[in-house]
DNA sequence: CCATATGGTCAAGCAGCTTGACTATCTCGA
DNA sequence: TCGAGATAGTCAAGCTGCTTGACCATATGG
């Protein structure tokens, strides 16, 4: 495989990723969740199961814990999450989603499903499943990184 | 297809895109091109064929022309591009890559090829071609957007 | 040939991140 | 058990890359 092919694949991947992020964010805003940015969505997915600490979030997002702390302050102020005392560590706080935070997460899922539906119109449902399977196999562990 | 599947696909796509961007940038830096960020790469691909104006770049990157102008100032100062008088419009300037800019672009292609090679180890060459084909069919036109 | 549109830059401001410093609490070995 | 170092979180200041607003030079069209 030539370098130019690798570059074309990379460009397509990054274009699709940018468009996906943009459309999910627009869909979330259109559903009435204001003042929320893509980075918040990545935070929500980490908070979703059982909550997380500020440091957990910082690692997940690949930023300093100060930056994560500011982000938490913002989503708490906007009503998407709340700070609770940590059950086993008095230094830490457990950040958990509020009902509004859960609703916002569901809105993001709906918006994502809409975008994927469009892909399905082009690739077919089998094509989309194949795409998901391939991406799942090459997806890295470690912190989420902005695509630029 | 359920929302959760769409979300899993989206998460995998964004994780792969973020990792790709990160590794290309690291590869470029490792090849000795300092002070260059992912956004510069997107600018280079627009400049590569025959140059472009500041406004062209702004549209391509989805930012204001002031931001594009600052970015051009930066890559000119760092020796990756130069401003030339525009052949048919005395207001405009044609921004073209220098030899160093071309070398940096080739380094980015090499780095991208390395990442794609790893995917090939997992998916096989056919799998990677299929992936590229699928992504190419759903890739949008319009400005490049950051993935968060 | 002048009114308006367009290309580019300067200047100021803002948002989101960083580094540095600090307190409170936990952990663990002497 | 207790004291030294590690860890959780926050406050403060600074930097960077973007924005908006203002401006000049040149192009375009009635």
UniProtKB/TrEMBL annotation, chains A, B:
Residues 6-140 form the HTH marR-type domain. Transmembrane segments: none annotated. This is MarR family winged helix-turn-helix transcriptional regulator. SUPFAM superfamilies: Winged helix' DNA-binding domain. Coiled coil: none annotated. PANTHER family: MARR FAMILY REGULATORY PROTEIN (PTHR33164:SF99), TRANSCRIPTIONAL REGULATOR, MARR FAMILY (PTHR33164). Gene3D superfamilies: Winged helix-like DNA-binding domain superfamily/Winged helix DNA-binding domain. InterPro entries: HTH_MarR-typ (IPR000835), MarR/SlyA-like (IPR039422), WH-like_DNA-bd_sf (IPR036388), WH_DNA-bd_sf (IPR036390).
């Amino acid at each position: 495989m030539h370098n130019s092919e690798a570059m074309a694949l990379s460009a397509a991947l990054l274009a699709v990723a940018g468009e996906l992020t943009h459309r999910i964010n627009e869909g979330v805003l259109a559903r009435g969740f204001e003042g929320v940015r893509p980075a918040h969505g990545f935070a929500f997915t980490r908070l979703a199961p059982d909550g997380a600490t500020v440091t957990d979030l910082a690692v997940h997002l690949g930023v300093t814990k100060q930056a994560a702390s500011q982000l938490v302050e913002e989503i708490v102020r906007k009503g998407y999450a709340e700070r609770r005392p940590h059950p086993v560590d008095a230094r830490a706080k457990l950040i958990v989603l509020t009902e509004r935070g859960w609703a916002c997460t569901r809105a993001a899922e709906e918006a994502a499903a809409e975008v994927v539906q469009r892909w399905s119109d082009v690739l077919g449902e089998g094509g989309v499943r194949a795409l998901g399977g391939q991406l799942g196999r090459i997806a890295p562990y470690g912190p989420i990184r902005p695509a630029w």
